[in-house]
Amino acid sequence: MATQTTPQDDAGFKGKVGLAAQGLHPKGEVHWNLVAPVLIQDAIRRGEGQLADMGPFCSVTTPHTGRSPNDKFLVKEPSSEADVDWGKVNQPFTETQFETLLADVRAYLDGRDELFVQDLYCGADPKYRLSVRYVSPNAWQMAFVRNMFIRPDATALPTFEPNFTVLHAPEFEADPAKHGTRTSTAIVLNLAKRMILIAGTKYAGELKKSMFTVMNYYMPKQGVLSMHCSANIGTGGDTALFFGLSGTGKTTLSADPQRSLITLQVEVGVAVRMACLELLVGSPV
To answer: Could you report the per-residue pLDDT of 162-175, keeping only the tens digit for each?
Structure first.
């Protein structure tokens, strides 16, 4: 999706109940669904980074310059417990630990002078996609997710109802003794509450990959095989799939200007679906 550069009429739309549905009651200003140029301007104003030569926005994310998989947890709760291959990849987190961390993250976000909200779709097909609300104290990470995920039409925002929430507190440090985390960094997914908490890391990839993990859980249950690949289609109807680990060029290869970039969904039978589910839950992307 191309970068939107003009403000939309509903850029300040606050949803049906604002952030109350997310349990937030912020004291500061809340910026809703700002377009990319405005987000970057706000990021520069706030000292989150700077523009480099020819215009790209640059920000320092140390100490994390990549994902932190050992700090990723999944809440162990009745609705999903039997589906998950618990272990080193899917580390269990108790419901009590989650509620403690959630309360502290909410209090932290409520106390910020500014919050940035983006209402977006994860997934192209309306039959399978999730409506996700991102809330963050930082502007540039919201520019990242606005570019990464699908933006609703302006006419859809007044009735947008998120069915998943990501609370992003990149500079909030978790307390292992209090919250049950490994370090001050935590990426915690609660499927029952349909919520993700991200704390202690400014690396934007966590915002993307955490929602991909969610899709890799739900889609096989709906008969759709999710793949870690990209795809495009030529004028003759020929399709190319690009597989590879992160950073190996899948997106670059698929974005050939002579071919149309497409999303890929594969309908699968029950037996294959359950086999894929076991693999995906055991090793989330």
So the answer is: 999 999 999 999 99
